[in-house]
Specification:
single chain; 1528 residues; globular
Amino acid sequence: MLKSCVAVVLAAVAAGAVDNSLTCTSERCLPEAVSAQVTKADDVLDPAIGLMQTALHYKLREQKVAEVAASDSASRARAIHEHNKMNRSVAHNQSHLAPFHANFSSCLISDDSYRSIPFSTEGIMEKELFRELGLIRPQQPCGNGQVAVLSSFFSFPGDVESQNKIAKQVIMGWVVIAVGFIVWSVAVVTAVPKKKDIDTVKGGLADEDKAYAEGFLSWVSLGWLDELVGRYGKRLNSVIDDAEIVVNRNDAEYKPHIAFKKHWLEEVKAKGSVEKASLLRPLYRTVGFKATACVVTCIVLEELCGSVLMVFALDKFLSTLENLEHYQKLHPGEALSLLEPTLQAVCLLWGVPMVFRMTSIVVSLLDGQYCNICAAGLASIVFEKALNAPAGAAMASAPAGASPDDEVPDPQGRDKPNIVQLLNVDIVETWGHLIRDLIYAAISPFIIVALLVIMVKQVHWAGFIGALYLVPIVALVTLGFMWGLNWWRSYQRYQDQRFKWLTEAMLNIRTIKALAWEKLSFEKLEAAREAELRCQFMGSMIGGFTSCISHTLPWGVLLITVWYTLRTEGGIQPHRIMILQRIIGSILNSIGQFVKGLHRVTMLPNSFNRIRRFLAQPDRPQNVIRQPALADANASKIRILGSFAYNEDQEPALSNLDVEIPKGELVAVIGGVASGKSTLLQAIIGDLYGIGENSYIEAPSPGDGELSYCSQVPWIFEGTLRENIVLNSELDQDRYHQSIYAAGLSQDLQILPGGDQVTIGSYGVRLSGGQRARVALARAAYMDKAQLVLMDDPFASVDVPTGQHIFNELLLGPLMKHRTRIVATQPNPNLLRQFDRVLLFEGGKVVEMGTPAEVTETKAFKQLQAQLASDTEVADSEGPDEIRSSGGHGGVAAMLAEKVAAGEKDMTLREDESQDHVTWSSMLWWMRAAGLFNLLAFAGMLAINRTVELREMLTVAVWVDAKLVNPNVDDNLFMMRCMMVVACCCVTTVLTSWCASLVSINASRRLHTEIMSNLMRAPVDRFFDKQPVGRLINRLSFDMRQVDDGMLGVGLGLFSWVMSFIITQSFILHVMHWKITLLTIPIYAVSFYFIYLYRGTAVPLVFHSKFAMSGLQDLQAVVLGTCVSIRANSMTDSFMTRFNHYSQSVIRSQYLIFSACRAWAQSRVFVCFGFLTGIFAVGGLWQGMPMGTLATCITFAYGQMVDFEVLTLGFTMALNILNALQRLTKYLNVPKEAAADMPGDPVVRKRLKIERPELLPLQIQRGAAVKDVTLKAKNGSEKEKTSPSLVVSIKGERPLLAATADGTALQLVEGRKLSDLAPGLEALAMLTEDYHIIAINNVSRSAELMAQELCNPPNVLWLDLLSSEFSEGTRIQIEDLTAGYGSNKSVLHSISVDIAPRMKCGFAGKTGCGKSTTLLCMLRMLEPRMGRILLGGRDHSKLGLTALRSIVGLVPQDPTVFEGTWRFNIDPFGEYPDARIWEALQLVRLMPHLRSLPDGIDSELARDGGNLSFGQRQLLSLARMVVRQPPV
């Protein structure tokens, strides 16, 4: 009762405060019939509400009567009758109406167009109090209901016809503007002539600096790209030149490198160490505050336009549509004013997206530019660090507190880091759009809050209730994300393992083939690959479940919000459902951006830690080298004082040195293996740490060109032979020809195609060891500024006459006569006599020093000679050997001139990287690899999934249309339908993810398997010699990773977008009028034309980026192993400049692909799609389409417009991925060696396991019992009777095994088989050949001990068997052998040799004469062009390569050490007992070194044998052969 009284009083006060002059137009009042329905409603229980409603109806009736009375008198009479009738029906309330009658306003619509009150109030407090008391109830808006958002700012005629006429004029003006811009965009590109094959290079294309100088609009319009797009976009396949796209190039002073290096050094100095330094701060300073603020501001504006403003625009438009629907329903037949909705469609639905696109263009350009600057700065500082890594630098251990899940490239902490991985994964992949994603992650929460505020304003507290659904979903998604992150880290670890072994395999492919380790390499790569793919599959499935959970988010929030609104307010307006859906979609998009940014944030520390760990490695020592004091002519040029070590925390490698070398002396450094000879040279270069304050070196600094260094493994980089000699100096023809002659290269240049212009690659592949050594020597001779020359065993790779020529013409010749020369060499007395001084090293110490005559008479020297007594003696000749080219070095010039005249200039021994255009064959191969059934299942599930997603939207559209027709529709029924459709969509999402994972895993597995299988069978001369190492590593790491990670993901995204586009556009065009459909056809055509132009431009840019990336990979693949030579020969700046050149090309290409050209295509297509959205909105409006259907069409069109940004990114990535796939599929058709296995191949060695219960009881017999034992015949020889020292018999039976004549093995007796040892053992029964037992368990080389082991067996016996055919060696017959490399001229001509079994035969000859070529032919690493080779009477061309290379062993010129243990390097298959390995190490004199290691043969070796001397690496290679003991 009290409530009613208060309500009446307040109502009276409010009504009395209303001005009588207030009137309401007919457009804003409820019809009388509706008012009557409201009055008679059963739920009107409150008398105050009834009172106000009655008063309202009275006022409405009075107004209606007045209007009708003014029209005609007949109507007036009927109105009076109705008036009297109404008076009678409300007579009992007349006394209460008097205060209200005069002052009641009839306007029902409040400002928010949703909650209307039945009277006007002027006080906010009164209105709110009425609402709290329940006196204000929601009602449907009345009349035309258009909220004047835009038209209120202009003065328009009041009649509907005039307003509609103005609306048509607005439409025409808008069409003219939009079409004009589209036509202009097409015209300016079409006017640019496309590039032709004969066109010259046109520099300065896409010069954005020039465009920005012309003005902001000139820059943001992207017109500066029109010439580039028009020139290349209209060709299907074209090649872009670096000079056309890279403007203002300055490789020597590359700005990102200089800027980041400066800020990084400041950061390290401020923090005190690299470990404490942060990478983010230098990166931020490199970008700058203004640039960062600009990017943040633009991204905030972009997000506001794309989320908040678009929701506002759609809200206003749909509100207007709903009001029009109500007015048309309540006033059938009346004309509608379409001016306001037309203005909203043009200004809001088209204008707001255009503003959004302009901001996104700015964001794309700025993000691409600054991300590339950061990536280039990081990459350059990493490469510079690699250039400055000291010799033998140990890998930095993981920092304290590091998580076990952190990516640690080397678990042992000893390996040199993999900078290829740092570039590919931690820099290139990490920094793609990183700045934008990080800022998205930072501002997305604020955007989400803003959208939630809008939602709450729409539906009040129901919005908060619906938003609570975010909590469990975000929690589940976070858990899934963390779970998937663990699998991703495991994936990266296994990938790193594969990349490491891949790098070693490609760098050492000759050794792998010579040792028949192809199977081992393949199995190791496949094992890592399987683990990698398993992690990828689990990550994909977790991603599918996460996507399924995320998909329920917008629908769950929507349905919960609507449900709560229905419970609390009894109903919801139809257009609110569409607005809520759009708001929730924007929230979901912001959450997606936040999750993506959070993922990048989570990955960033791991990448930064890897980079920082690399940068934290010790630099080459500083302040060790001091400039020599040359105050007088007699001052020493070199002085070495103190002790030195490779690492500060290790034992000294050189101890207690005190050496002075006067200027101009020729000094020999001699000693045994690992005595310190090479270490001394590296110390002089400055690559060893001084132990103590008094340890220093006075020598020229290696960075100023006053020092030249020739390492034991000659340093050859990718380039021509001339470039490898001249380096970065100017060409002095006379000095150049003298250097070639002095190095003994004259005759080699006559053989090489193109002479000195022949391209030689990393490690000088295709040149012999001697040729590589002489190229390095010629380089040292040519460096006229170098006053100190260091040579590490320069004569090891050349024959004696060539070595004598080099000694006399180069070391003692005019080019080096007055320089200081320090040569590490062998202790040959005849050679040492010609040196000025000799240093004899032992254990890192100088044990003797003096003139050659003094040192050669010492005890230490004689002991050293005794150790090396078995080495080949050098010829006694003291004079120079006459092997000069005719005419001296003048003949070199004449010969090179003849080469040029003959047209052999610029010839290469390598395959140039050709542009690999994407072909259908590569994509069809991938599809076949994925599996037809898997692809069909995937396509089917994807189609079903997209159809169900469309059904979700259509369900909402039908719901909205039904509510417009019947406000009392059963909302619960439609909500149930939505839940069922969403559940079906979740199921199809998971199934689609599962099918996609199967497709991706199957294709990736087969791709890797077939490529690696082909590469392991590819010939050295016809394939590997023509492929740069960096290119192979790049293809098999970066390209394969792209195909693995992106082929299906990007393909799925593109395919999904295409399917969604076809389905949604088909639906829109179906419901639109046919005239509108025809109008859109040209717009679609223009849109696809822009996409075609973008494709044509992106393809050559993608190729150019890949080509430049290969150059970076080539540099990085070899820099760690050759950094000492690079620094010593003053090539650091040159290599840094070369790296910056490739880096700038990569960065520029990536920027144009992913940022500039992509933004160009997006802006043009966005205008077209925005125009289509406006056409659909205006067309549906004017044709009277139901609001739900029209809203769905607009939502679809707008969604496609926004999703096109994702499409362009996916399309660009797809080009990269397809290009990578095309490059990889080239390796499916490489040349192949002969078959690995052929029928009838002999099995040289076997290892079998026998359990003691399987072995028959055996006994040893000697004396009379072993007389006249008939042994099995070999190789067709006659049976022979002999009396061995012992036999092994089965108890109670005749002999089974007998000792060989030399007593080192057990052989079968005639009539016996090895299966007789254990008749039940299948492995023995399957042996078809006769074998000798050469080892049992750890017992070898003693028939007596092996027989005892056999007769008194332990629980398990391991038998090592050697085929009887090869037990006494193998005869080699070479008949008329002619061979050469690839398609070049033959090196061997009709060679015939007959070598008896077990004969020691040496191949001698000058460098390049074919010694190594002959050995390669025996291994079939080169196939003979004519003639044949017989091994034990077998034609070696009829043998499988595995059997052949198990018969013939090779110790290569360049020793190879693999990352792993000593045991793995010697016996990777685990075929031999430990005793055999230790015995081999003892024979090659490595036992003392192994005994000093705590883990013995299980000690770890660094990659490339970084913790071994060159001599130790050679001995390790020899130990492999000692263990294997191949017949040849």
